[in-house]
User: Which sequence fits this backbone?
């Protein structure tokens, strides 16, 4: 199932609607990395609110996604992590180091605005 | 029913032994209970005297001891009579509920029940001393019941203590992990007392929920009131910090005692992951800085007190 990717000014927003299998995750990663270049986006928000379970494959893929997008000149923020999921991940020792996180969409957008102001001056 | 020491009598007894042993028991028990009821006043007084002499139930006054002694005595005899122990169990729990807050200890409760057992046994020895065989039968009826009574009362007491302890532990837990919002986006979690794995788990749940519902960006966890933590709890704390980060919040830990600082170093905590400040004041100042607040004295002159 393809995850819809929306464009909001300089940013791309991907909202994960339900549990994704491995190939869906890879498809999302590739789609985002591709689209970032096509629309010359400066930031990407991945909303994982609807994800009840995040396993090590999903975590790795999300991390890869963030790194790849950074190489393409954009910043990624993961938003909406559920408390139970966050704790489960941490207990299993799978953390999203070097990947920015925020509480929700609004926070995520604010984070990206701030980041852009820091690196590129006024947005 | 008296046991005749005649040949015929013995044979009769032997032949009917198995069928009538139950009725024999019941009859003996009835005799026994009758005796205990008849001599209620003296036996109860003797028991109360022994309790005071053994320096038990010092937390209670003599009047109180006598009043409780009366209830226990009557419940005891009733349990002997009916052979059922539910009423006694209920009474034991009720009694425990009343005397535990007074500071009565387990050894005292067990002690007084055993004293009653002794007082009643002595009285039986006195009554049936002329007929050793009968005395033995009486004791056969009395002892299992008396032991079960002692057991029931002691277990009831201990169970009540355990229930109270659990209740208090729960109450302490409820009280002691509040999540407080002190500024927009800033939460404070002051922790006081003993940190055990269960409390740590509860803390994490409350914190993560609090971050979500208050939309907090910075959390200050103050552990000034925690004397020491073991490595499990320390690891849990680190995990809590990491999990909070996944929800977009920065955690500042303040008030680490020298002991806790040592524990963290000993277990090799990655200090890069832990943002710590010496005291709560410093932690709040750092949090405000992270949030972009600046505290300046106002231009107005403060009210002279």
Assistant:
């Amino acid at each position: 199932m393809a995850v819809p990717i929306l464009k909001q000014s300089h940013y791309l927003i991907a909202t994960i609607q339900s549990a994704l299998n491995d190939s869906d995750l890879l498809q999302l990663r590739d789609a985002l990395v591709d689209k970032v270049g096509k629309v010359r986006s400066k930031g990407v928000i991945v909303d994982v609110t609807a994800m009840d379970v995040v396993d090590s494959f999903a975590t790795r893929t999300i991390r890869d996604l963030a790194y790849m997008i950074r190489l393409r000149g954009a910043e990624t923020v993961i938003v909406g992590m559920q408390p139970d999921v966050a704790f489960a991940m941490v207990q299993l020792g799978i953390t999203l180091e070097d990947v920015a996180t925020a509480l929700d969409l609004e926070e995520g957008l604010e984070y990206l605005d701030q980041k852009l102001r820091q690196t590129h001056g006024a947005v | 029913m008296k046991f005749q020491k005649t040949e015929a009598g013995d044979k009769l007894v032997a032949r009917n032994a198995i069928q009538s042993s139950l009725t024999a028991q019941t009859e003996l028990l009835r005799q026994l209970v009758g005796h205990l009821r008849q001599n209620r006043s003296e036996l109860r007084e003797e028991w109360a005297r022994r309790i005071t002499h053994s320096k038990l139930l010092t937390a209670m006054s003599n009047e109180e001891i006598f009043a409780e002694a009366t209830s226990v005595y009557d419940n005891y005899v009733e349990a002997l009579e009916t052979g059922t122990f539910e009423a006694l169990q209920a009474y034991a729990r009720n009694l425990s509920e009343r005397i535990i807050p007074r500071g009565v200890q387990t050894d005292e409760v067990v002690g007084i029940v055993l004293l009653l057992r002794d007082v009643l046994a002595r009285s039986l020895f006195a009554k049936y001393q002329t007929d050793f065989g009968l005395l033995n039968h009486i004791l056969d009826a009395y002892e299992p019941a008396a032991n079960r009574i002692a057991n029931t009362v002691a277990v009831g007491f201990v169970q009540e203590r355990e229930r109270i302890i659990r209740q208090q532990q729960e109450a302490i837990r409820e009280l002691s992990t509040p999540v407080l919002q002190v500024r927009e986006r800033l939460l404070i979690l002051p922790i006081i007392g003993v940190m055990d794995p269960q409390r740590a788990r509860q803390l994490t749940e409350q914190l993560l929920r609090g971050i979500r519902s208050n939309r907090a960006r910075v959390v200050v966890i103050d552990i000034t009131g925690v004397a020491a933590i073991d490595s499990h709890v320390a690891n849990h704390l680190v995990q809590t910090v990491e999990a909070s980060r996944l929800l977009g919040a920065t955690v500042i830990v303040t008030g680490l005692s020298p002991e806790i600082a040592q524990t963290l170093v000993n277990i090799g905590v990655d200090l890069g992951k832990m943002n710590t400040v010496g005291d709560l004041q410093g932690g709040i100042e750092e949090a405000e800085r992270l949030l972009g607040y600046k505290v300046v004295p106002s231009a107005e002159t403060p009210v002279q007190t």
